[in-house]
Amino acid sequence: MSHTEQDPCAAVPALVQHRWLQQLVGEWTFEGQADMGPGQPAVKHAGQQSVRSLGELWVLCESQGSMPDGSRAHMLITLGYDPQKSAFTGTFVGSMMTHLWHYAGALDAAEKVLTLDTEGPSFSGDGTLVRYQDIITLQGPDVYELASQVLQADGSWKRFMTATYRRTR
After folding, report:
1. What pLDDT shows up at residue 124?
2. What is the C-alpha to C-alpha distance for residues 44 and 42, in angstroms, rounded to an integer?
């Protein structure tokens, strides 16, 4: 192995981006609403989230909440930072869907907003994949917002879900 190659099994030191993610560690409750489509009223949702560290480099955000039909939903988000890609990376999976979402994102200059780009099934149900963003906005040490939006055909973003998370411990 040359001196410029890194041992893939060697521990990697945490960077400022990894430490930023550690702010999310804790127990949270959330309340929000989701747009259910044209001509339908927004649906409120609520639940709990537990965020834990996987070492210093990753956080695992496990949530439980209610679906519009009253059934329970379970979600898991993994988030880390890949210095080789200069991007935040991660995944999202939910008990209500079969698609595994892959994130690549960036933090804004003020270090308050993490925008995660991803691709997933279109709401049209036609089998096409479209671009989405999940956006985490820190509003303080004990409050953050998660918003989801989809790229429209005209190039604009349409926000379809928001939730406010409040730390309980």
Report:
1. 84
2. 7
